[in-house]
Amino acid sequence: MDTVMIAIVVLSIIVVGLTFVVFALLSKKKYAEDRAREAAAKADEILQSARKEAENTLKEAALQAKDYQLQVKLDFEKETRERKNEISQLEKRLLQKEDVLDRKTEGLETRVQEFGKKEKELAEMEHRLERRNAELEEMIRGAKENLERVARVTAEQAKTELVEMVTDEAKL
């Protein structure tokens, strides 16, 4: 019986050892599965966190892009307004200069017309003076001729000629 007992004890030890090994293997398998599940859960959690962080980063980048776009637009509009104001002021100054030049041109044209009139008047006056000068020279020549004739004629003849001359002039 001793051998049977020993065999039973050995068998019991083997069964207990095998049970322990099976239990250890099952525990190890369960532990490995739990660790794998935990690792998968942790990976999912990290993945979800990374996705949320990426979404937040994208949203933040989109907001920054919108802010930047808005700032660029505002800067552009401000610069455009400033340029329009500069152009408007330049146009205003040019119009003022143009008005001044127009007034000066009108003044010069008026002066040119006045000079033209004066020149024409002077030319007419010169022409009248030349005619008057010619008439006076003719009168002087006639008077000289009359004096020469009078010097050769008697007092009675001179008186007659003078009366005729005055009568002729009165007829004119």
List the helices and strands and how they pair.
Blueprint: H1 2-152, H2 155-171
Key terms:
172 residues; mainly alpha
What does this structure look like?
It is a single chain. By secondary structure, the protein is an all-alpha fold. The protein has a domain at 103-172. Helices cover 98% and strands 0% of the residues. The chain contains 2 helices and no strands. It is rod-shaped. It starts with a helix and ends with a helix.
Described by strand count, sense and barrel closure, the largest sheet is: none
Radius of gyration: 68 Å
Overall, the morphology is: rod-shaped
Query: How many extended strands?
Result: 0
Sketch the topology as an H/E string, one letter per element. Answer: HH
Number of distinct helices? 2
Provide a brief overview of the structure:
The protein has two helices and no strands. With 172 residues, the protein is mainly α.
